[in-house]
Amino acid sequence: MAQKRDYYEVLGIPRDAAAGEVKKAFRRLAFKHHPDHNRDDGAEAKFKEINEAFEVLSDPDKRARYDQFGHVDGNGFFGRGFEGFDFGGFGDIFDTFFSGMTHATRNAPQRGTDLHYEETVSLEEAAFGCDTEVEVKRTELCTDCRGTGAKPGSHPVRCSDCNGTGQVRRVQRSLFGSFINTTACNRCQGEGQVISEPCPQCKGKGREKQKRRISVRVPAGIQDGTQIRLSGEGDVGLRGGSSGDLYVTIGVLEHELFVRDGDDIIYELPVNFVQAALGDEIEIPTLYGDNTITIPSGSQTGREFYLKNKGIPHLRRHGHGDQLVKLRVVTPESLTKEQRKLFEELSDNLSPAKRDGKKPGS
After folding, report:
1. Listed residue (115, 97, 98, 112) closest to 54, CA to CA
2. Maximal C-alpha separation, the chain
3. Where are the beta strands (DSSP E) in 280-322?
4. Are 149 and 215 in contact (CB under 8 A)?
5. pLDDT per residue as tens digits for the range 226-243
6. What is d(CA 244, CA 236) in angstroms, rounded to the nearest whole number?
7. Would the pLDDT of 153 be above 90?
8. CB 123: neighbour CB atoms within 10 A?
9. CA–CA distance from 248 to each of 48, 189, 229 (Å)?
């Protein structure tokens, strides 16, 4: 069996990478290698490898066990600590003892694979919540045979070689005596049944890829990068196993007027010299509609005004953030002759600006 690659190598991150780095690396690689976006051979296998690495490294407990022991193979042995050890002639004996345990779980129900997708919303949608849809490509039961793998009108039949158990028992002699070795049935490949007439739709697999649009409820106050889990919306399970989950990572688009800071909203308000010097009442935009604020006379660039509860609703508690309005006095880039004359007259009547004694940047 091929040696598994190190999970940190798969995601391209150092072993001491923080949780945020793990998540960022996964999102980048998953999008790059997702079969819906990448048609290259091996993209699907690469995508599954990335999912497997993320599932372990994003879980603190699983990551701790992996850091200590490494990969766990099909027989329950860890990938570290046994490297380079030669079991010699004991390989057959171990196969004898443990192969029955391996094949005993072959016909057990198997949970479906989790799926990971991304969806973007506007700042307003993130603030107030919304319903959106994400198009996913997932594995479902075949619509024709309903998962049996047999042509409609026919049914799988019990395997005559293993009598439906999926296993064949053979006596094996060794230095320690005789052992009963249980292996998967070659005829039915351990399934316990044989399909004589495969379903034309799924070629006997019982499953097929389908595109679905899944509704996602985005809660009010959601942050950029938040992951929403939709239980049971992933790939269908095998042999009656439960379906995997669908994880949708929400990205919040930048806004043309506002900058988000946690649950607060920052808005930069440009004013001219006259408004700053004499004061003014100005109507400004908020997420909740226009709001009028008073600019006192003599206001300077950098002055701040707070509008209480005009920010983002808190996600898991009552209340809202605030809106911070930052004043910026704008210098005109060009003047008409009349405007220049007025400024010159004003300059003659104004005292020179005084230094405030502070060093630049202090």
Report:
1. 115
2. 114
3. 280-284, 291-295, 304-307
4. no
5. 999 999 999 999 888 899
6. 6
7. no
8. 20
9. 17, 36, 6
The model scores a pTM over 0.70:
no
| Full DSSP string of 205-246 | SSEEEEEEEEEEEEPTTPPTT-EEEETT-SSPPBTTPPP--E
Residue 354 DSSP symbol: P
Integer Cα distance of 326 and 278 in angstroms: 18
Q: What are phi and psi of 309, to 5 degrees?
A: 60, 25
Burial tier of 53 (Cβ tally within 10 Å: 0-12, 13-18, 19+): buried
For tokens 């900058």, name the residue.
259
pLDDT digits (tens, 9 = 90+) for 30-67: 878 877 666 677 778 888 899 899 989 999 888 988 88
Strand partners, 313: 320
Please state whether beta strands 258-261 and 280-284 pair in parallel, antiparallel, or not at all (unpaired): unpaired
Question: Long-range contacts for 182-185 (Cβ within 8 Å, ≥24 apart)?
Answer: 182/99, 182/100, 182/103, 182/104, 183/99, 183/103, 184/103, 184/106, 185/159, 185/161
Contact 149, 198 (CB under 8 A): yes
Token pair belonging to 14: 């150092």
Which has the higher per-residue pLDDT, 23 or 183? Answer: 23
Least confidently predicted of 112-121, 148-157, 258-267? 148-157
